[in-house]
Amino acid sequence: MGAEVVVEGLTKSFGRQTIWRDVTLTLPPGEVSVMLGPSGTGKSVFLKSMIGLLKPDRGRCVINGVDIVSCSEHKLYEVRKLFGVLFQDGALFGSMNLYDNVAFPLREHTKKSETEIKRIVLEKMEMVGLTGAEKKLPGEISGGMRKRAGLARALVLDPEIILCDEPDSGLDPVRTAYLSQLLIDLNAQIDATILIVTHNINLARTVPDNLGMLFRRELIMFGPREVLLTSEEPVVEQFLNGRRLGPIGMSEEKDVATMAAEQELADAGHHDGSTEDVRGVVPQLQPTPGLPERQGVRRRKDRVMSILHTLPPAAQEGIIESLTPEDQHRYNVRPHMFATVPAGHRPSPSPRDRITGDLGVAQVPQTQWRPPAPGEGGGV
Ligand SMILES: Nc1ncnc2c1ncn2[C@@H]1O[C@H](COP(=O)(O)OP(=O)(O)OP(=O)(O)O)[C@@H](O)[C@H]1O
């Protein structure tokens, strides 16, 4: 099983420019998480901070009991071996063929024999669908193949945590769909904890178990996918639907006057540039038939059901509806069950839960939802 990553109060600045502050989240072991955010919000800086390539100013990032922010260089070196990283451009050596690129970490960090290295390299290349391309140079293959090669290289040291920096960048939608499937298939096969940073809406909707979003120097949400997919938070809705209308502007933030002017144009019938308006929880990608079941999904069910009562009503509904009838029976829940429970009898999270984020992995901002007023339906 992959390692858990616990991030607490992480803050990073470059000089006087704060990139993000007080980021707190947990990547549950063996689950797939996606971090969204407009360009320049510090998603790549976040990934680099997690492997100790950048040093945060404050906070903790704990992996297997080691805080990589404050640990010694030696410990950091050890912890880094748990990670496999897929960089944006694959970060392959242009002068080496794919075989040697994939073999590189094994030759560099282990004392394995060439026979053993060959076995591992061919196995990983097969996992990413690159069998037969061993002799190709990175310059001779497509962007999608380069990503796959980068992924194969990230896998050779059997990582417990895989970080993917915009795996879709430069890929067409079809290749992105294949890569999304590959990430889910890999997770099913090796049960690693995966964090993907991306702006790709389709990938964000269909791949992860957990979704988060960075905006305005903060982690505005992080939690089970159903929380963001059903969120009415304007910035989340705008991003997930690729709209111009909303708080995100050309240079990340918009002033009130610009927002009002755009709203006026939209009200007058001017199209705002979005081609889709998808709401709610779309089905999650499943491993290709024949591959093992994802262990992370099984564990997540128990985890999410244990924090269900702390989540916003629409997310609860989405989670319950995505369960099989057997699971609904097992957890003693059914769709729309809370709408019929009298308000006074519904368990509700304490205010402390919402303020301090004691929500397991969910970091739902205080403004995101409120306990329903007496007589109001739909809440817990
Ligand atoms: N080493 C560095 N020194 C100074 N500033 C940096 C450094 N690395 C990143 N930054 C700044 O941090 C900010 C966030 O950059 P980052 O690349 O993490 O954004 P991002 O969300 O990944 O963007 P994109 O989606 O466009 O890749 C940017 O303003 C960038 O200029």
UniProtKB/TrEMBL annotation:
PROSITE patterns: ABC_TRANSPORTER_1, ABC_TRANSPORTER_2. It comes from Kibdelosporangium banguiense. Keywords: ATP-binding, Nucleotide-binding, Transport. It holds the Pfam family ABC_tran. InterPro entries: AAA+_ATPase (IPR003593), ABC_transporter-like_ATP-bd (IPR003439), ABC_transporter-like_CS (IPR017871), P-loop_NTPase (IPR027417). Residues 279-299 are annotated as: Disordered. One of its GO terms (molecular function) is ATP binding. Residues 5-241 form the ABC transporter domain. This is Phospholipid/cholesterol/gamma-HCH transport system ATP-binding protein.
